[in-house]
Design a protein that fits this description.
It is a single chain. With 283 residues, the protein is an alpha+beta fold. The chain has one domain: outer membrane lipoprotein receptor (LolB), chain A (Clam). The protein is built from 6 helices and 13 strands. The chain has a 13-stranded mixed beta sheet with strand order 1-8-9-10-11-12-2-3-4-5-6-7-13. Helix 2 packs antiparallel against helix 3, helix 3 packs across helix 4 and helix 4 packs antiparallel against helix 5.
Length: 283
């Protein structure tokens, strides 16, 4: 797999982890996390801090993503901005490319220095219908972190997969006492239980990446609010031997700022065909 294709696959794997959402200890049923999913969804919104690390046999050094934003769970709107570091100069992506996502209802707007000169009519933003994103699984950075801003999606997949979780221990997150849980999402079982587009997207993801299980760690406070999520992905050599770890922290729960979307004159509305074309251009 060529370098830019490997990078695209790594970024796509983050999206797959998103649209799905330790040490030994006694096993417990998934109910604590089901409660956490409901409580966090009902709190209004939260600010987020994101960090991720991608390693692969085609990457001379690890690639890191760092940033943050906010998301309103009630209105399904928010923003996420990340900076990517560790790209080799040969990749032609710049030393520290950036990416910004704006969520507004079922629409996702993606702006990035990665897109410079790549979008039609000089557009600076790509607009994607999230409800159809599952039909375009495995595409280029337009998928980056889709759904990561809403951690309850991952908890719903954990519940749907029929998994049990282990209570690992306790830890303070940003000064708040939390309980640490560890479990594994079976992508196929969870997607089949949820049905719809998620099932087809999951089948394609498993086929492409050669991975059916995602280890997940969740830190929950005494009010059943999710304070931290960690998702880990490791693919076999046939899929580029990627190792991805995503960490998401939530804080300042409650109301979030209103979201404004880019002007239509600066936006390219991407179809599945258009997304596939951009993905092919990165190979």
């Amino acid at each position: 797999m060529r370098l830019r294709a490997l990078i695209a696959a790594g970024l796509g794997s983050l999206a797959i982890a998103g649209i799905l959402g330790g040490c030994g200890s006694s096993a417990v049923v998934v109910d604590p996390l089901a409660r956490a999913a409901e409580a966090t969804s009902n709190v209004g919104g939260a600010h987020t801090e994101l960090s991720a690390r991608i390693q692969g046999t085609g990457l001379p050094q690890p690639v890191s993503l760092d940033g943050g934003g906010y998301f309103n769970f009630s209105t399904h709107e928010g923003t996420l901005t990340v900076q990517l570091t560790g790209f080799p100069s040969a990749a032609g992506l710049g030393s520290q490319p950036t990416m910004q996502e704006i969520y507004k209802g079922s629409d996702l707007y993606v702006g990035s220095s990665l897109f410079a000169g790549e979008l039609p009519t000089g557009a600076k933003w790509m607009k994607i219908d999230i409800s159809r994103l599952g039909q375009a699984a495995g595409l280029n950075p337009s998928q980056l972190l889709n759904g990561e801003s809403n951690p309850t999606q991952i908890l719903q997949y954990l519940k749907a997969s029929g998994a049990s979780v282990a209570e690992v221990g306790t830890q303070r997150i940003r000064g708040v006492p939390t309980t640490h849980y560890s479990g594994t999402i079976n992508i196929e079982k969870a997607a089949a239980a949820l049905g719809g587009a998620a099932d087809g997207a999951a089948q394609k993801a498993v086929s492409t990446l050669g991975v059916s299980d995602l280890p997940v760690d969740v830190w929950v406070d005494s009010h059943d609010l999710v304070r931290r999520l960690q998702v880990t992905l490791s693919t076999p050599p046939s899929a580029g031997h990627l190792q991805v770890q995503i960490n998401l922290e939530l804080f300042d729960f409650g109301a979030t700022p209103p979201v404004s979307v880019p002007a239509a004159s600066e936006t390219f509305e991407a179809s599945s065909t258009g997304l596939s074309g951009l993905a092919a251009a990165a190979e």
